[in-house]
């Protein structure tokens, strides 16, 4: 079967029709549909198609691989890793699966795990420059700069016109304090992409370290022209101007650097130095105090909602999910009646009575997944997130395909600081067809 490699891009979520299997549709048909949807950037539709292909043929590694790519393009890297795991389990010689899994691991800051995957990909396909580049990035993230330098050099041997690789090699040389060696790399980036401000900024910073302050100012002028909100370029230009005894010019640059990044203690120090040179000793002392004290602030407060999702955000994300209140035939135990009355009481704002009715519904019908879920929603709204999670656990145990429960449990777990487990739940919700999960994944799981 053919397979598709897609770049990881930022996308707007869109809903797609639910895919319904017919007697005429085969696993191959769904796979081909997934490929077509992926090419059209309909990654939610592609995910559903590949899921159907997997349901009909659970031993096809390409379906798992391509579903992993679809999830990765939806920024669901935790879910993508699970699919890549299965693809590799079915086909351990797939270099692209290792490469893609490494990319998703690096997106989750698992750089050592990513490094192992990139190394395995290189073993299987030693002529792929992207694998060397990615491994170099992972090595640099764990301070293995010499290994990273070797990887970037190999990547450039295989792809000598890649501006990004020259740039990261130049940055790596800076990390190794080879500032003179970084200059040709940044110059190559300028030649290949003359509108890239980072190349001028990088070269300017290296020139500062080499005491070429006039040349540094020239490069940093260009960097700021191309990217006027780059606080670091203002800082380094201020430093270079100070070395050239242009204290007024340096002062203006430090002002801008601080305005763009208020916790830049080096900029406060530099501005204090310039103010002292210009005779404003009172302001200079204030800046020096700020530079000294800035990193000594330690606020230790107990936070219940310790994840990126705050209580306010949790409430907003939770409250758009509706209980599954549908007309059922009333059983002799009357559980449906208690359930429906509880939903109505909750909508009237009587949460206490609603909980009482839902408790009764569960007592009469212990396998009533919707009742557990609805009770969990109310408990979450009351701030009892642990109890809400327990109800969600019961609901998904009774109905493992209850997508909304995974979504709610995911955002609650995330709000309590369990980001990994929360994001895996959100991934499962999306996989089961609850597409709003991918917006939350994009905002809070990367």
Automatic annotation (TrEMBL):
Pfam families: TPR_1 (PF00515), TPR_11 (PF13414), TPR_16 (PF13432), TPR_8 (PF13181). Residues 1-21 form the signal peptide. TPR repeats lie at residues 27-60, 61-94, 95-128, 129-162, 163-196, 197-230, 231-264, 265-298, 335-368, 369-402. GO terms for biological process: receptor-mediated virion attachment to host cell. Keywords: Repeat, Signal, TPR repeat. GO terms for cellular component: cell outer membrane. Transmembrane segments: none annotated. This is Tetratricopeptide repeat protein. The lineage of its organism: Bacteria, Pseudomonadati, Bacteroidota, Cytophagia, Cytophagales.
């Amino acid at each position: 079967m053919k397979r598709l490699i897609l770049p990881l891009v930022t996308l707007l979520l869109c809903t797609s029709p639910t895919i319904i299997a017919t007697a005429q549709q085969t696993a191959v048909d769904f796979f081909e549909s997934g490929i077509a949807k992926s090419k059209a950037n309909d990654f939610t539709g592609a995910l559903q198609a590949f899921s159907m292909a997997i349901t009909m043929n659970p031993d096809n590694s390409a379906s798992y691989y391509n579903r992993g790519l679809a999830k990765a393009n939806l920024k669901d890297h935790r879910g993508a890793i699970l699919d890549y795991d299965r693809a590799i389990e079915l086909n351990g010689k797939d270099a692209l699966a290792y490469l893609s899994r490494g990319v998703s691991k690096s997106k989750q800051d698992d750089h050592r795990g990513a490094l192992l995957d990139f190394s395995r990909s290189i073993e299987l396909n030693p002529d792929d420059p992207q694998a060397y580049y990615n491994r170099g990035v992972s090595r640099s993230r764990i301070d293995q700069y010499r290994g990273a330098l070797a990887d970037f050099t190999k990547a450039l041997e295989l792809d000598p016109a890649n501006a990004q690789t020259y740039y990261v090699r130049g940055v790596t040389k800076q990390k190794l304090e080879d500032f003179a060696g970084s200059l040709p790399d940044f110059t190559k980036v300028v030649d290949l992409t003359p509108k890239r401000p980072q190349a001028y900024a990088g070269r300017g910073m290296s020139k500062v370290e080499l005491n070429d302050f006039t040349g540094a100012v020239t490069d940093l002028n260009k960097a700021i022209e191309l990217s006027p909100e780059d606080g670091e370029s203002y800082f380094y230009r201020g430093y270079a101007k100070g070395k050239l005894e242009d204290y007024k010019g340096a002062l203006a640059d430090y002002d801008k650097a601080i305005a763009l990044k208020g916790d830049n203690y080096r900029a406060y120090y530099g501005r204090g130095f310039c103010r002292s040179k210009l005779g404003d000793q009172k302001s200079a002392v204030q800046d020096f105090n700020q530079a000294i004290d800035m990193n000594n602030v330690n606020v230790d407060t107990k936070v219940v909602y310790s994840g990126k999702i705050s209580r306010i955000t949790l409430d907003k994300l939770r409250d758009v999910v509706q209980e599954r209140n549908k007309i059922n035939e009333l059983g002799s135990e009357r559980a449906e009646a208690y359930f429906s009355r509880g939903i109505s009481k909750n909508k009237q704002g009587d949460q206490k009575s609603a909980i009482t009715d839902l408790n009764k519904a569960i007592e009469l019908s212990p396998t009533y997944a919707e009742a557990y879920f609805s009770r969990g929603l109310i408990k979450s709204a009351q701030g009892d997130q642990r109890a809400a999670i327990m109800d969600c656990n019961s609901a998904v145990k009774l109905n493992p395909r209850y997508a909304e429960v995974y979504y709610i449990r995911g955002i609650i777990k995330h709000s309590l600081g369990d980001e990994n487990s929360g994001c895996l739940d959100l991934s499962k919700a999306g996989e089961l067809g609850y597409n709003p999960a991918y917006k939350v994944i994009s905002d809070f799981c990367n």
